[in-house]
Structures are given as C-alpha cells and as structure tokens.
User: Fold this.
Amino acid sequence: MNSPENNLLRQIFLERAELLLSRIENARKIPHHLTVGEIREAAIIDSLRDLIPSGFDVCSGFVTDALGTVSPQIDILLYRQDTLAPIFLRGESAILPFELFRLGIEVKSNLNSEGLKQVESQAKALSDMVNSTFLSAAPPHDHHTTLVFKKAATPFLVVAVDSEYSVETLNNKTDSTPGLQGIIVLKKGLFYRNCPPYIGENDIDRVIRFWALTFNNCLDLQDFVLIDDSKREEIKNEIRRRHPEYDLDNPDIEEQVFKRLMRPNIMPYLYPIKS
Assistant:
C-alpha cells in the first residue's frame, strides 16, 4: 500500500543519510587527524550538493569583499551561482566574493570551547564585510560609482559529529555565541538560535532535519540582498549626489537602476572604491 512515509524521494534521501553517516564514521578509522576532518567535510559537501536548489553550489575556502577584507578559512561555503564566480585555488578550495556567499558551515568531529572560539572569530570576520555594487553613468557621461553597504548577517552554522557539551549547554551556546545561527550535533540534536531544540529520533533523523533546514535557508537567501525603504532612500540620495543624470523621480528609471544595483558585479573588485 502506498504511504506518504514511504514515498520514493524520502527513501532515496534516507539511503543518502545512511551513506553520509557511514562515510563520517569510517573516517574515524584513518590514523591522521587532518585527513579525518577533510574526509568528513567532503562527505557533507557531497551530500549538500545533491540537495540544494538549482542556482546554488558548495565549496570551501575564504570569503572576501571589495574593500579587501578576507575571512579565515571556512570548511563549507554555500554560494549563489550568479554573474560572479568563485576563484578556485585548488580542488574545492576557493576565494568567494561576498556578494555570492549565502551560508557558512564549520565542521567539527567533537565540538568544544576551542571550536566555538574559532567559529566566533569566523562569524565576526563575515559580519564586518560589506556588499558592493556598481553603477555606470548614463550616456554621454563616462564616470562610474561603486557603492558599498551592509546587509543582515549571513547564517553561520557548526556541524559536529559529537560534543562534550550537554543538550542544555549546546542550546545556550547557540544563543550566546555572536554570529552563530545554529549548532548541529549529529549524535545529540539541532540547536538553532531562538528556536526550541530538535533532538530527533536518531542520527539519520537529525541528518534529514539538517538537510531540510539548509534547503529552506537557500530558498530564503536566493536574492543578492533585500533592502528596506530607509536603506533604499539612502541609496537613492547617494545616486542623486553622484549621478544626477539619472532621473530617479521617474519610477521606471528608478526600477531599472535598482535592478542593476542588486546584481552582483565584478567591477568593484577591479576598480578602487571612490568616495
């Protein structure tokens, strides 16, 4: 008899969750700490690549912005495939323009206080970065403008196999670690900021929940940036100052200009920021 609990896609993802857990467990048998971590990162990257929506991809490496800020190395970077592209250094390792960055994940075998300090440092570096966009002049003018602005912090997660912390402490650490959206401990539960802990039935159930939340995060973060009315007015005033040739009182022109501004662009990285 057909059953919603036995639909074909669910069965496929349950099998993939078993495979992921098997790869993570088998990595423990390798007598080299760095290699164990790399194998587990690769296993999670592969699992996410099979799950995330079209238009997204996964790599590891560094995030940078047009002002030259560079993050510490981050195990997993989910990014939006767009007009820009990562600059791959070696294998899966890349330098990722901040405008493409959507979600960061740090992988730990056993999450402890040292690991959380590292995550806090990574999250702070990301929170200090700015978005950049480029506006060329309307003909016959030939000057251009790079605009930089802040947006809401990008989600940052820890995925650990296990942790020395109790469930209660993990929940508290999630809420108290700056820049951290959630802690996923495959052997204990999922702990997201301002949400009740999710303990789940078993490791496979927790993997499925992690995948589901990551997929939904991608859907919520498809756009380059969303700006509120006050930020939009601030940007309009700056455009009027630098580019009076654009008639922003005309709704059609305003819409064209902002559509251009909300598209990631390589130009801010190639030309110095001008005041």
Observations:
- The chain has a mean pLDDT of 88.
- Strands lie at 56-64, 74-80, 87-90, 93-97, 101-111, 131-136, 144-149, 156-163, 182-185, 189-192.
- Helices lie at 8-27, 33-49, 113-127, 167-176, 203-220, 229-242, 251-261, 267-270.
- The two ends are 68 Å apart (CA to CA).
